[in-house]
């Protein structure tokens, strides 16, 4: 779908997958004016295809659009784009345990000019790719590298938007994490509070049943996290969204108050954190039952194996 200042959203169409032609002066190539989403389509046992809370992805795309001075795509266009893509060939959505069609909606500034201002011509695309199980051979706890050198986002920055620049700034720390034998990097904010991983939110489980997740205006609000916390509340657990300092994390684990730490996002759903590593310490993390039990409950809902009490599924075929 194209957007221009004069014409608004227009020209929705499905076209064969292939290269996009762009003017070398297209604003996105110079100023990074772009945003995206990540969402999956699941095939149920009866053959029907569903997405999970697509209205939330559409809403987040609009929030990202506002921060990046891009036009807001209405929710119905967002969901319609998924329906039309899947209508081309429903067989794209694989069946089988942990199989899905990963959908990548994205929007970028294509107006050609050199100068720093919001573009007046924008394109929205949706591409898709079948995705298998994130973990082969079962969910494994991950080792997390604490980056003390690099930040992902700053106050008033674009941290809460899903825009390429945030991921660009996470590439070097992620490479540092890999060089240190870790799977992922965790970022802190300027005040020493825990933010998130490069592509997942973090959740702490306390001995007294509280489930705590970092909240700030520079964290990307995960839809997986929101759903898991709702399921935790349904089980009678108390959920807290607030600042969590690194000290609270480390002391909580050392004292036994924190009994479980996990990360969550669309791709992996839930992964327990097994170790927190930095240049001067390595804290082993306690492994509990809640992460995997919530993971099972959520994936059961997504694949239609359990009742969708909250009305989260939207049929798209
Ligand atoms: N934080 C970041 C930085 C991410 O890229 C993602 C993945 N979209 C998440 C958190 C988790 O979000 P969601 O649960 O909506 O996939």
TrEMBL record:
Listed CDD domains: BCAT_beta_family (cd01557)
InterPro entries: Aminotrans_IV, Aminotransferase-like, B_amino_transII, BCAT-like_C, BCAT-like_N, BCAT_family
Functional pathway: Amino-acid biosynthesis; L-leucine biosynthesis; L-leucine from 3-methyl-2-oxobutanoate: step 4/4; Amino-acid biosynthesis; L-valine biosynthesis; L-valine from pyruvate: step 4/4; Amino-acid biosynthesis; L-isoleucine biosynthesis; L-isoleucine from 2-oxobutanoate: step 4/4
NAD keyword on record: no
UniProt KW keywords: Amino-acid biosynthesis, Aminotransferase, Branched-chain amino acid biosynthesis, Pyridoxal phosphate, Transferase
Cofactor(s) essential for the protein: pyridoxal 5'-phosphate
EC numbers, comma separated: 2.6.1.42
Molecular function as annotated in GO: branched-chain-amino-acid transaminase activity
Pfam families per the UniProt record, alphabetical: Aminotran_4 (PF01063)
Keyword S-adenosyl-L-methionine in record: no
Reactions that this protein is recorded to catalyse: L-isoleucine + 2-oxoglutarate = (S)-3-methyl-2-oxopentanoate + L-glutamate; L-leucine + 2-oxoglutarate = 4-methyl-2-oxopentanoate + L-glutamate; L-valine + 2-oxoglutarate = 3-methyl-2-oxobutanoate + L-glutamate
Family the UniProt entry places it in: Belongs to the class-IV pyridoxal-phosphate-dependent aminotransferase family.
Protein known as: branched-chain-amino-acid transaminase
């Amino acid at each position: 779908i194209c957007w221009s200042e004069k014409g608004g959203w227009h020209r929705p169409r499905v076209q064969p997958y292939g290269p996009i032609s762009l003017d070398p002066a297209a604003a996105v190539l110079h100023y990074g004016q772009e945003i995206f989403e990540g969402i999956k389509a699941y095939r149920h046992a009866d053959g029907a295809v569903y997405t999970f809370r697509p209205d939330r992805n559409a809403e987040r795309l609009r929030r990202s659009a506002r921060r990046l001075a891009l036009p807001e795509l209405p929710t119905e266009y967002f969901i319609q784009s998924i329906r039309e893509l899947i209508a081309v060939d429903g067989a794209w959505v694989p069946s089988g345990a942990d199989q899905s069609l990963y959908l990548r909606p994205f929007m970028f500034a294509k107006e050609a000019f050199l100068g720093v201002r919001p573009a007046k011509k924008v394109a929205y695309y949706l591409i898709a790719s079948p995705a298998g199980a994130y973990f082969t051979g079962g969910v494994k706890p991950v080792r997390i590298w604490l980056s003390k050198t690099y930040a992902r986002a700053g106050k008033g920055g674009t941290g809460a938007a899903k825009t390429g620049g945030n991921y660009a700034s996470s590439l070097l720390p992620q490479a540092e994490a890999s060089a240190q034998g870790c799977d992922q990097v965790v970022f802190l904010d300027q005040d020493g509070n825990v933010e998130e991983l490069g592509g997942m939110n973090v959740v702490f489980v306390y001995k007294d049943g509280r489930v705590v997740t970092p909240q700030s205006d520079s964290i990307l609000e995960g839809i997986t996290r929101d759903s898991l916390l709702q399921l935790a509340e349904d089980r009678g657990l108390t959920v807290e969204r607030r600042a969590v300092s690194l000290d609270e994390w480390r002391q909580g684990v050392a004292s036994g108050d924190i009994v479980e730490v996990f990360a969550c996002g669309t791709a992996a759903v839930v992964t327990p954190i097994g170790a927190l590593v930095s240049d001067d310490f390595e804290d082993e993390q306690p492994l509990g039952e809640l992460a995997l039990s919530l993971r099972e409950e959520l994936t059961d809902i997504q694949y239609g194996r359990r009742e969708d009490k909250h009305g989260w599924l939207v049929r798209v075929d």
